[in-house]
Write a structure and sequence with these properties.
Helix 1 runs parallel beside helix 2 and helix 5 packs parallel to helix 6. About 40% of the residues lie in helices and about 15% in strands. With about 350 residues, the chain is an alpha/beta fold. The strands form four sheets. It has a seven-stranded parallel sheet with strand order 3-2-1-4-5-6-11, sandwiched between helices. The site of UDP-4-deoxy-4-formamido-beta-L-arabinopyranose has 19 residues, from helix 7 and strand 8.
């Protein structure tokens, strides 16, 4: 039997595909390549097996997903396919709801028609919005603060309703801040647009592709005034998806699980450690806060340890070293040069 990975050519999808292959599963990637490159599929094949199956298309297309499931004997699904830019979601909310919820509905319909009931869903800490208390547990209040976050929260609610009706066993994995890359440097984060996340931008400055980093906010109530996040190695995150599939038999229904290290790091801490990793200072300047940013958020990862038997193993230095190795090997990602990168 096989596992279908929708959005499998993406950053977390490609790393998860490698971990799933290493768990002994036959992996089928499905991706519309709207925010990923077919070169990522080739790179995943290089890390797994040359005959790893790839289906190009939209996860919202019920017939396409169904055909892929029939052709490859799929009996479990990991669903990543979604648009994920907070900034873009504010500009284009309807496109985000259509794509992100449409793909959940497409996958669910194809699964239901074949009585495939094992699913892992890519959710996000953004469902917690700007939490009052940290660390954040799975019973912390939810309430997203942007359309991207609402698509994740509504996706969870939709999946929970189907699970409650008895048709689905699903793990709702709430990621904190994934960074890093596979230690080979063969796969990594490669947003087709200009990135908005801290570490890709920081390392573009380090590699000279961008002049300087804007540090959004220096007046937060934190040790150094910059905002705090729970950064998580993408390979740890990928391994958590394997553990989540394995845990479904013992945890039927719908289960939300935070995936983080349980440790917070400030933006300026990340900048300082990255400078050590790359071997030179990285130009940055503290500017005003970015609207919508939380002051501090990190996970209480104890439920992941209890339910999945998983804890993050890699530290922030390893995350940055692995991310930097990917950047040095692929200064322009999988494909050609980017547009002008300066802020
Ligand atoms: C991290 C910190 C910024 C860029 C987002 C999504 C979340 C998840 C992870 C998908 C913040 C600061 C950033 C820059 C900066 N994605 N920063 N200068 O916003 O915590 O989370 O990505 O699930 O859903 O919301 O990540 O990397 O954008 O920001 O100072 O040029 O770095 O202000 O404090 P974020 P981020």
């Amino acid at each position: 039997m096989a596992v279908l990975v929708t959005g499998g050519a993406g950053y977390i999808g490609s790393h998860t595909a490698v971990a799933l292959h290493e768990s002994g599963r036959r992996v089928v990637l499905l991706d519309d390549l709207s925010n990923a490159s077919s070169a990522a599929v080739d790179a995943v094949r290089g890390l797994t097996t040359p005959d790893l199956a790839f289906v190009e298309g939209d996860a919202a297309d019920i017939d396409l997903v169904g055909r892929a499931m029939d052709e490859h004997g799929v009996d479990e699904v990991v669903h990543f396919a979604a648009s994920k830019s907070v900034e873009e979601s504010v500009r284009e909310p309807l496109a985000y709801f259509r794509n992100n919820l449409g793909s959940v509905l497409g996958v669910l319909a194809a699964m239901e028609a074949r009585e495939v009931r094992r699913l892992v869903f890519s959710s996000s800490c953004t469902v917690y919005g700007e939490p009052d208390d940290v660390p954040v547990t799975e019973s912390s209040p939810t309430g997203a603060v942007n359309p991207y976050g609402w698509t994740k929260l509504h996706g969870e609610q939709l999946l929970r309703a189907v699970a409650d009706a008895g048709g689905l066993d699903v793990m709702l994995l709430r990621y904190f801040n994934p960074i890093g890359a596979h230690p080979s440097g063969a796969i990594g984060e490669d947003p087709t647009g200009i990135p908005t996340n801290l570490v890709p931008i920081l390392l573009q400055v380090a590699s000279g592709r961008r002049e300087w980093l804007q540090v959004f906010g220096g007046d937060y109530d934190t040790t150094d005034g910059s905002a705090v996040r729970d950064y998580l190695h993408v390979v740890d995150l990928a391994e958590a998806h394997v553990a989540a599939l394995d845990a479904l038999s013992a945890h039927p229904g719908a289960t939300a699980v935070n995936l983080g290290t349980g440790r917070g790091h400030s933006v300026l801490e990340v900048v300082a450690l990255a400078a050590e990793v790359v071997g030179h200072p990285i130009a940055h300047e503290v500017v005003g806060r970015r609207p919508g940013d939380a002051e501090r958020i990190w996970a209480d990862p104890s439920l992941a340890a209890e339910v999945l038997g998983w804890t993050a193993e890699r530290d922030l230095r390893t995350m940055l070293e692995d991310h930097w190795r990917w950047c040095e090997a692929h200064p322009d990602g999988f494909v050609g040069a980017r547009a002008d990168l300066d802020p």
